[in-house]
Amino acid sequence: MKTFPDPAFFQRHPRVLLALFLIAVVGTGVLVGVLSAPGPWYQALRKPPFNPPDWVFAPAWTVLYILIALAGWRSFLRAPRSRVMGIWAGQMLLNWCWMPLFFGLHQIWAAFAVVVLLFVLIMTYIAANRKCDTTAALLFLPYAAWVAFAGLLNVSIALLN
User: Fold this and answer.
1) Residue span of the structural domain in which 127 resides
2) Contact call for residues 36 and 95 (beta carbons, < 8 A)
């Protein structure tokens, strides 16, 4: 009996898998963003001087979600039930939890803890792929940089408020 997803099918049809990764990652990211959009609470918070304008976040995250999907796709094609895919899935879940925690529940310090764990998983994913799939590791570097910056923003906002 074959299981779903059938890795053999995706090995024969990698573009189908790529489309599924892009739809799942970008689509869920957009959905979480729409459902957890910053509102008056966030606008009223004191922010550090290096806080980027609000319009920067949507395009930045769209590009990052595409890179994350590409890396996950590559890892799935190589080893669908591997430790690396577990790390990828774990960081994705943490990623999608941050916005509702910060913007929806106003839990700034809890959101910071999530960012720290997220950064650890991102760096673990990069290290795990460094030798076996350098491209997947490189695809995560902009993500690591952005999440480090987001962590700095998060902790700065927590300290200012």
Assistant:
1) 12-36+51-160
2) no
